[in-house]
Amino acid sequence: MLEIDDLHVTVGDREILHDINLQIGDGETHVLLGPNGSGKSSLLMTIMGFANFVVTSGTIRFNGEDITGLPVHERASRGLGIMFQRPPTISGLKLGKLLEVTSGDHSKEVQEYALYMHMDKFLERDVNKGFSGGEIKRSEVLQLLVQNPSFVMLDEPESGVDLENISLIGHAIEKLLQKDIHLKSRKKSGLVITHTGYILDYLDADRGHVMCDGEIKCHGNPREILKDIQARGYRECMECQQT
Amino acid sequence: MPADLKKNPELSPEDRERIAQSGIDMISMGTKCGVYFQMNQEVVQAACHEEGIEVLSIGDALKKYPYLEKYIWNLVPKDKDEYTRYVAEVQEPKGYVIIARKGTSNILPIQACLYLGREQIQHVHNIIIAEEGAELHIISGCASGRHVGRGGAHYGISEFYVGKNAKISFTMIHTWGEEIDVFPRSAARVEENGVFLSNYVCMQPVHKIQMYPTAQLVGKNAVARFSSIVIGYPGSLLDLGSRAILAAPGTSAELITRAITRGGTIISRGHIRGETEGTRGHLECKGLILKDGTIYAIPEIEGVVVGTELSHEAAVGKIAREEIEYLMARGLDEETATATIIRGFLDVKIEGLPPALQKQIDTAVDAAEKGF
Ligand SMILES: Nc1ncnc2c1ncn2[C@@H]1O[C@H](COP(=O)(O)OP(=O)(O)OP(=O)(O)O)[C@@H](O)[C@H]1O
Ligand SMILES: [Mg+2]
C-alpha cells in the first residue's frame, strides 16, 4: 500500500530524515519507535505532505502511485489520514462544524461517532481550544473515524491518556484499522508511533521499526523490539548498523 | 403611503437581493412587528403593530410628541462635524423614531431599511427610546444599488436612550455600493441596569465608512457591548471605532471587532474610559490580512480612578499555514480550508441577542464566505 524509497527530508536548512526505506502492505499495521526528536512525527508529516517538510530526494508511493509531490488534500482524498501529536487550535471554528464540512454533511454518522468517542459535548467548542491532552486524542480519533482513511497514521495515540480512555481509543483504532474483520478481507493499513507500546494490546502490529537520528535503524517483531528497548534503552539501536 | 413594498417598481431584483442581504425581509415587511422604510429621501413606510411600540417618521413623531425636542441633538452635538451640521441644517429632517413604552418588548425585530438608489446624499436622524423595563430589538439594513456612483452618500444621526432596566439591541448590516461614502454618527445613553447591544456587520465593498459611536453608561450596572464584523476590499476605507464611558458604579463594556482585509484599509479604533470604581471594560480586536491591505488597530483604555479594571487585546496577522494544512489533511482543498477557518474567525456569538437576529448576522457573514 505504502512504499517509501531512499527518502531524504529537510526542515529549514536541516536534513532531519535520511535515506528512509519502508514498505507497508495491504492490511498491515506497523509500529514506529524511537527516542524523542528522532524524526518519527516528521516522517508522518512528510507522508501526509506538509509544506514544512521538503523532500530533497526519494519517493513516496501509495497504491502504486507516486504521491511525493501531491498536495495534502489530494493525499487525504486518496485515503491517507493522520492523527496529530500536537494539532493546532482553530479559534472560532466549532469541532461540529469542522466534522460537518469534512463529512460532507453526514450529520447522523458524526453524531454517532461523537457519542462513541464521548465527544458529543465538544461539538460546540472551538477545535482543540482548551482541550486536555486526552480530549485532543479523542477529538483526533473522532475526526479520523469520520474521515475513514484507508492508510491510518497515528502519532502517539495513547500518550497522556488515562486507562479508561486508552481502552476507548484502542477500540476505536481497532475499528479504524479493521482489526475486527478477518485478515484476508482486511484492507486498511496503519503506521503507529508509540513510546509505551500500550496501544499494541489493541493493534496486533505486524512489524516494528526503530528510528534514531532521522534514520530507520532496525526492523523486526514489534513486541520483541519493545521488550529490548524496555530492557536496554535505545543505546544499542543507535549503535546498530542499518540492515 | 404605498403599502405594498413588494411591488415597488423602482427596485430591481438585484436591489431586493442587496436589501435582503442587509437583513431586511421585504416579503413579511409590514406584516411583522414593525417597519421603517426610507428610499433616498422618501419615507415609504413607517408602522408598527406591536402593542406599546411605535415606529414613526421623525417628522410625524415631532408633531405628535413635542417633548421629543429634548431628545434631539442631545447625545450627538449638532456642531460635531460637517456631517452633523449638514443634517442639522436640512429643512425637513428624515429618519425614524422608535419608542418602546414602559415594560413592552418585541420578539421579532423591528426592521428599519434605508435604501439609496441614486447619486445623492441620503440623510437621516433617528431617535430610539426604550422606556423603563422595555426590551427593543432593531435590525437596520442599509443598502444601495450596486451601481450608484460617486456622490452617493449616507449621513445618519442616531440617538439611543436606554432607560432603567431596559435593553436595546441594534444590529446594523451594511450593503452599500463600491462608490458610497457613509458617515453614521451615533450615541447612546444607558441608565441603571440598562443594556445596550450594538452589532455591526459590513461584508460588502464600500468606498468609505467613518464612524465612532459612543455609549455613556450613566446608571449603576449599565452594560454596553459593541460587536463589529467587517471585511475591507480594495479601494475601501473603513474607519471604525466604538467608545464606552463607564460613568457609574458597576458599569461594564465589551468592544469586540473581527476585521478582515482583502486589499482595503481598516482602522479599528476603540476607547473605554473608566471614570468610576467598580467598573470593568474589555476591548478586543482581531484582524486578518488576506491580501495586501492594511489593518490599523488603535485600542485605547483609559482609567482615571482606583477600582476600574480595563484590558485590551489586539492581534493582526494571517491564517497560520499549520491550520490550513490541518484541515487539508482532513480532505478539504486549500480554498475550502481557508474559507472554513475564516468563517470560524468571523463567528462572533452575541450574548443576549434573539436567535432571529443572530441568524441574520450569520447569513450576512455566510454570503461573503463564497468570495474568500
Ligand atoms: N518545523 C520544524 N522546525 C524545526 N525543526 C523541526 C521542525 N519539525 C521537526 N523538527 C526537528 O526535527 C527533529 C525530529 O522531530 P520529530 O518531531 O519528528 O521527533 P519525534 O521522533 O516525533 O519526537 P517525539 O518522540 O518527541 O515526538 C527534532 O530535532 C525537531 O526539533
Ligand atoms: Mg513526535
What would your notes on this structure say?
The complex is a heterodimer of chains A (243) and B (372). By secondary structure, chain A is α/β, with parallel strands linked by helices. Chain A has one domain: 3-Layer(aba) Sandwich (Rossmann fold). Chain A contains 9 helices and 12 strands. In chain A, the strands form 3 sheets. In chain A, strands 6-9-10-3-11-12 form a 6-stranded mixed sheet, sandwiched between helices. A 4-stranded antiparallel sheet of chain A has the order 2-1-4-5, covered by helices on one side. In chain A, strands 7-8 form a two-stranded antiparallel ribbon. The mean pLDDT of chain A is 92. With 372 residues, chain B is α/β, with parallel strands linked by helices. Chain B has 2 domains: 3-320, no CATH class; 321-372, no CATH class. Chain B is built from 6 helices and 21 strands. In chain B, strands 2-1-5-7-9-11-14-17-19-21 form a 10-stranded mixed sheet, with helices on one face. In chain B, strands 10-12-15-18-16-13 form a 6-stranded parallel β-barrel. In chain B, strand 1 and strand 2 form a beta hairpin. Chain A binds chain B through residues 48, 50-52, 71-73, 76-77, 81-82, 84, 87-88, 90-94, 97-98, 101-102, 126-127, 143, 147, and chain B through 320-323, 325-334, 336-337, 340-341, 343-347. Bound molecules: adenosine-5'-triphosphate and magnesium ion (MG). Magnesium ion (MG) binds at residues 40-41, 85, 155 of chain A.
In short:
Chain A is built from nine helices and twelve strands.
Blueprint of the fold:
The complex is a heterodimer of chains A (243) and B (372).
Chain A: E1 2-11, E2 14-24, E3 29-33, H1 40-48, E4 54-62, E5 65-66, H2 72-78, E6 80-83, E7 90-94, H3 95-103, H4 107-116, E8 126-127, H5 133-147, E9 151-155, H6 163-176, E10 189-193, H7 200-203, E11 207-212, E12 215-220, H8 222-232, H9 235-239
Parallel strand pairs in A: 3-10, 3-11, 6-9, 9-10
Antiparallel strand pairs in A: 1-2, 1-4, 4-5, 7-8, 11-12
Chain B: H1 13-21, E1 34-39, E2 42-48, E3 53-57, H2 58-64, H3 82-89, E4 96-100, E5 110-116, E6 121-130, E7 135-144, E8 153-162, E9 167-175, E10 181-190, E11 195-202, E12 208-211, E13 214-217, E14 223-232, E15 237-240, E16 243-246, E17 252-261, E18 265-274, E19 279-289, E20 294-303, E21 308-317, H4 321-328, H5 334-345, H6 355-369
Parallel strand pairs in B: 1-5, 4-6, 5-7, 6-8, 7-9, 8-10, 9-11, 10-12, 10-13, 11-14, 12-15, 13-16, 14-17, 15-18, 16-18, 17-19, 18-20, 19-21
Antiparallel strand pairs in B: 1-2, 3-4
Bound molecules: adenosine-5'-triphosphate (ATP) and magnesium ion (MG).
